Automatic annotation (TrEMBL):
Keywords: ATP-binding, Cytoplasm, Kinase, Nucleotide-binding, Transferase. Transmembrane segments: none annotated. Gene3D superfamilies: P-loop containing nucleotide triphosphate hydrolases. Belongs to the cytidylate kinase family. Type 1 subfamily. Its EC number is 2.7.4.25. One of its GO terms (biological process) is pyrimidine nucleotide metabolic process. GO terms for cellular component: cytosol. Its main location: cytoplasm. It catalyses: CMP + ATP = CDP + ADP; dCMP + ATP = dCDP + ADP. This is Cytidylate kinase. ATP binds at residues 11-19.
Amino acid sequence: MSKAIQVAIDGPASSGKSTIAKKIAKKLAYVYLDTGAMYRAVTLLALENNIAAEDVEKLKVLAEASEITFEPTKDGQRVLVNGLDQSAEIRTDRISKQVSKYAAVSEVRQVLVEKQRAYTQNGQGVVMDGRDIGTVVLPDAEVKIFLTASAEERGRRRFLENQEKGYSDMNLVDLIEDIKRRDLYDTTREDSPLVPADNAVMLDSSGLTIEEVEDKILAEIQQAIA
């Protein structure tokens, strides 16, 4: 595959976007950008600095001043926030419970969208996942995927992932309810709500293996390049 394109993968919480996006980017030797991690990073900084989601001006300044970078590792990548590895901390339930609220702030989204678009300026192929990549961040992406699964399936996945990483303080029932709450928040917010792009390929991953999802998306990319 010689032509470099932009791939946008959107979907609700715990739909497997990041896992799939990382695999696709690695296979194609594309840049991978986890936009959700950027919103989690700002949420972490806001909580550490006691800045409420309603304090828009302080949040905007915080987002502008934040340095969020991604460093490749053997197994994926680390998320550095102002020079510190916060890969594990931004995935804790403490952040998961708050991130939708901070991500809904228009001023924060505007700042981070500009940071995200900056990653596409060098002409490299890029795989980006989030909530509004195909609709707002990369509206001209050649491939747009909307990846979803039932709330129960997504809750189960997040529960197993948290258990494996050893930092969950929520049981399965609470996780499913939290995911439903985040879905409602994300789909009804005024700025960049979670909706499929008009030309997105809808893909329900319920009952599919990671490999099967990856193959379906790679087929879409191959078709776009051809």
